[in-house]
# Entry
Amino acid sequence: MLDPVLPTFDDVRAAAARIAPHALRTPVLRNPELDALLGAEVHFKCENLQRGGAFKFRGACNAVFALDEATARRGIVAQSSGNHGTAVAIAASLRGVPAHVVVPRNAPAIKLAQMREHGANVILCEPTMAARESESQRVLAQTGGTMVHPFDDPRVAAGQGTATLELIEQAGPLDVVVAPVSGGGLISGTAIAAHGIDPATTVIGAEPAQAADAFESLRQDRRITDMVPDTICDGLRAHLGRIAFEVLRRERVEVLLASEAQIVAAMRLQWDRLKVIIEPSCAVPLAALLATRERWRGRRIGIILSGGNVDLDRLPWQSA
# Structure
């Protein structure tokens, strides 16, 4: 198997220019109580307020608009637990081309509704990576479209890195940047962007302890793909991709873990203090930092709030 093509800092800057007419420049929030809890100065980049409710629009938009016209007209194929599918649907709609999204049938209802609202042809499959891959290949063969992978695509990872470019423009120099880890498109782009600006920046990936394949992949120095995730964070159940594994090793990214209880507590804390809606996957960075708070005293920290597509009828702290 050929080594994956890794995105560069120039790719991130090119992506920023490409998506500028379409992506929102999301705000950065501060909160004195959260600063006090960590003993640090924390800047929250609100990608939960991005188009489609998640950072995923950046990568999808870059990938879709990077295609030549003839290729784009044949349509876009994606696989997603929700946010990437919505992002692809929006980007394809903006470009005026069809979008076909393979989605596990247990995806949150809000995410399925958003994909359909933006014109995607939603194809349901069993909730396993093998089923997603198999069904995606079938749809590709049937449509002749182009796969825009949720994370194992250098154009997608470069697009995700634009959130960190904006964060540092808005907040100023940061000692630490933290983002959630799933397939790794966001953390890859984050590391490339942060280190392109300042190689001394510490880049941290945050992952549920019950879906710790990235943590184990770096610990064992081999990509772990047979772990079965068991986490409330539906957006963080994918295995670390080939691109992300190589980028995380090259950029010396550290992955921290958080328990399910810590994630739910951090989610509720951010709803309460920041007054913004975030989903469980989005709460993992703060949960991981709070679990290791002695390390962060006096530091300037940026956190990517990755998404806000949560089912309001099934909040994790509500009783059944």
